Amino acid sequence: MDEVSLAVEDLKKDWDQKVSQLQERIQEIENCGNSGKGTEEANALPRLNGAAQDCLASLRSMQFRLDFLAQQLPTMEEVQSGQALVEIWKEQYQKLHMGLRNANLQAKANIRKAAQEERELLLGGGEESTVRRRNLQTKAGMTSAAESITESLRRTRQMMVQEVERSASTLATVDESTSVLKKAESEYKGHRSLLSRTRGLLSTMKRQDVIDRIILAVGLLIFLMAVLYVVSKRVGVLTLQRKIVAAIKSGSIPNKDAIGNAALNQETRRLS
């Protein structure tokens, strides 16, 4: 299994964990106000909603990461499966978001009901009402301070999550750029080897062209020499023939029959 597939599997596990956390927060929000402590639970509601919103932000980030990783899976079947999982996560995210909204509506209704009961109890008079009023004021002050600190921490955490998401996006972009550069480097190496072979072929062709030119020049020279030799011989024979014919016509050389008879007479004398 390659690195992308492993990253997708880890992302699925993180998604399931984060969904479970969000469902727990939604259940806590929905039950907010049922214990009869309307004021305290009303002060705790923003903290619960902040935690739920953090979970939703993490789920959105996971959707983007899965959509990015799905495009890099090795096979087309895995790419299609990843894209289908992205759509499933989007539907699940919408259901969770709607569940959080309904839980808040239920919590507000519960808190209003609990606050009404507390108000009626406080307005009833008596020592119990006075003690409860003091306790509520003390708890309200402590809860307000705690909620303020919690809200500040939540905002800080949200900013850190956003920075982590931006860093992850930047790292993903850098990884993609690195893969593109590696691909370009491999293509350049392939072109460089091709250019080296092409230069070698061109050098070989140039040497072969020089050799062919030398061979053609030598062949042409030999041919011309042969032609000159043949022409010179032919011209010499024709000149000799003309000289012989001219000599015969002028009588300097006897003709053929006279030469034959003279040779025959000389042979008869020698035999006698």
Task: State the major sheet.
Answer: none
pLDDT < 50 runs, ≥5 residues: 255-264
Q: Please, what is the oligomeric state? A: single chain
Total number of beta strands: 0
Question: H/E element string?
Answer: HHHHH
Report the average pLDDT across residues.
76
Give the helix proportion (percent range): over 70%
Q: What percent of residues are in strands?
A: under 5%
Instruction: Figure out the total of helices.
Output: 5
**Distance, first to last CA:** 124 Å
- Radius of gyration over all CA atoms, rounded: 55 Å
What is the general shape?
rod-shaped
Kindly describe this structure:
With 272 residues, the chain is mostly helical. The chain is built from five helices and no strands. Helix 2 runs parallel beside helix 4. The radius of gyration is 55 Å and the shape is rod-shaped. Mean pLDDT is 76; it is low at 255-264.
SSE arrangement:
Elements: H1 3-31, H2 38-70, H3 76-122, H4 127-250, H5 256-271
Helix pairs in contact: 1-2, 1-3, 2-3, 2-4
GO molecular function: SNAP receptor activity
InterPro entries: Sec20, Sec20_C
GO cellular component, one term: endoplasmic reticulum membrane
How would you sum up this structure in a few lines?
The protein is mainly alpha-helical. The chain has helices spanning 3-31, 38-70, 76-122, 127-250, 256-271. Helices cover 92% and strands 0% of the residues.
Highlighted features:
mainly alpha, 272 residues, ER-Golgi transport, coiled coil
